Amino acid sequence: MLCAICGREGRGFCWVSPPRVGTRRQFKRFCSMRCQDIYARRAKAGGGVVIDPTHNEKAAMEAVLPRLGEYVAAIGMDRPLADYSREEILQLVDVVLTAYFDNLRDLTPDDVPF
Ligand SMILES: [Zn+2]
Asked: In whole angstroms, what is the distance from residue 64 CA to residue 79 CA?
C-alpha cells in the first residue's frame, strides 16, 4: 500500500479511523512519521481531503528544476540522454523524485489548499 501523502511505498506507519456503527473503518498508510504528521496536520486543518492538489504538484515540479539542472550540468550538458549509463539515468530519476517529494512535504499548512 502506498503512502497517502507522497505515493512512496508505505512502511509501517498508519492511521485507522475510529470505529463507528454503520461505517467502514478507513485505513491510511505512510512511508514515514513525516508524512504521517503531514496527514494529521491536514486532517486537523480541514478533514484531510485534498481539494486541489494540482497547485501543489505544479509547485513541486517547478522546485525540481534547479536540482535537475545541477545534475545534468554535472553529467555534462553536451551529452544526449541516450548516452547516459543506466546508473546515471537511475540517479537522474532519484534526483527528480527526491526533489519533487521533498517539496510536497515542505509545504507549510498555508500552502495546503484546504
Ligand atoms: Zn510518504
From this structure: 20
Residue 63: name the closest of 16, 110, 95, 27 by CA: 95
**32-66 pLDDT, tens per residue?**
999 998 888 888 877 655 444 557 778 888 899 99
Instruction: Spell out the residues 6+ positions from residue 67 whose beta carbon is closer than 8 angstroms to its own.
Output: 95, 96, 98, 99
For ligand 1, the distance from its centroid to the CA atom of residue 79, given in whole angstroms, is: 33
Nearest to 101 by CA among 1, 4, 5: 5
Query: For residue 43, how far is its CA from the centre of ligand 1 (angstroms)?
Result: 15
Tell me the whole-structure pTM to 2 decimals: 0.51
What amino acid occupies position 85?
S
Residues 6+ apart with CB under 8 A from 73: none
